[in-house]
Amino acid sequence: MKKCFICGVLLSTAMGHAAAQDWSVQPVIGMKAQFGGDPLATIYYTDGTEQDLLAGQGIDFYAGVLLKQSPYSVKASLGYKYSSSMATNIDVAKTALPFNLTGRYDISSGFFVGGGLTHHFSPQLAIDTDTYTYESSLGYHLELGWEAISIGWTSVTYDESGAEFDASTFDVNLELVF
After folding, report:
1. Is the four-CA dihedral 63, 34, 113, 135 of positive or negative sign?
2. Which member of 45, 55, 87, 128 lies 3.0 to 4.6 Å from 167 by CB, making a disulfide possible if both were Cys?
3. pLDDT band at residue 67, thresholds of 50, 70 and 90?
4. How far is 11 from 17, CA to CA, in rounded Å?
5. CA-wise closest residue to 62 among 97, 94, 95
6. What percent of the chain has pLDDT over 70?
7. How many other CB atoms are there within 10 angstroms of residue 126's CB atom?
8. For residues 169 and 171, what is the distance between their CA atoms, to the nearest angstrom?
9. What is the CATH number of domain 2-177?
10. Where are the domains of the chain?
11. Which residues fall within 8 angstroms of residue 175, CB to CB, at 6 or more apart?
């Protein structure tokens, strides 16, 4: 909670400074597909196949603000990350609330590079009636994009009762700025 408060204060300060410096403030929504991470669990199907539930894998739907003064920008966003299994005989869901703070630099012709911090709040894995809760985790992310499309790398770990799982991912992102 303390980290949320600090991030809120920093974002409020940045927005006030942005207004004084002719920065534009624009709403952002996006969807990020993330691939990778250590296996958290394995689902075994009746046909003999299996599926690993990876720590980082999932779809992240997010919203936030973009503070821009060309060629620089800062984006703050909060998302809901979800992944599941194709199993029909059990309920499986992995969720987290990623907060991202990203600095970007516009290269030219719509291309940009960026990097920043990510904090995954409340990561958990629910399998039927069992829920495994992991500690909130701080990491970093990098991105390279053109217009509304970007690819990136997110590095973060999930800890549960002394066990550490790499939740790092390769990311494909689609983002709309209004």
Report:
1. positive
2. 55
3. very high
4. 10
5. 97
6. 88
7. 15
8. 6
9. 2.40.160.20
10. 2-177
11. 28, 29, 30, 31, 148, 149, 150
